[in-house]
Design brief:
transmembrane, transmembrane helix, membrane, DUF1467, 0% strand, 3 helices, DUF1467 family protein
Length: 93
């Protein structure tokens, strides 16, 4: 695999990992015991730490990318191994 392809795949893993990481560790103003700001959604986080979130996303994306690369190299899971309908043996006319 070319390094540019690997970089593009890592960026995809990183962007998808944002949605995996964002819900964890977030506390609302009500959970913290603070004052509710008028116009603010009740589910809004009390304090958002972008650096901590970026670090967590990077760790998750790197782990997933390493697993992807290992699978690419060793071929643990192939398209044939997840063929649930046995379409590989179909006869075409």
């Amino acid at each position: 695999m070319r390094w540019t392809s690997a970089l593009a795949i890592y960026v995809l893993f990183w962007s998808f990992s944002v949605f995996l990481v964002l819900p964890f560790g977030v506390k609302t103003t009500r959970e913290v015991g603070g004052e509710h700001v008028p116009g603010q959604a009740e589910s809004a986080p009390h304090e958002f730490r972008s650096g901590r979130t970026a670090w967590r996303v990077t760790v998750v994306a790197t782990v997933l990318f390493v697993l992807f690369q290992l699978n690419y190299h060793y071929g643990w899971i192939s398209p044939q191994s997840v063929d649930l309908f046995d379409r590989g043996n179909m006869v075409t006319r």
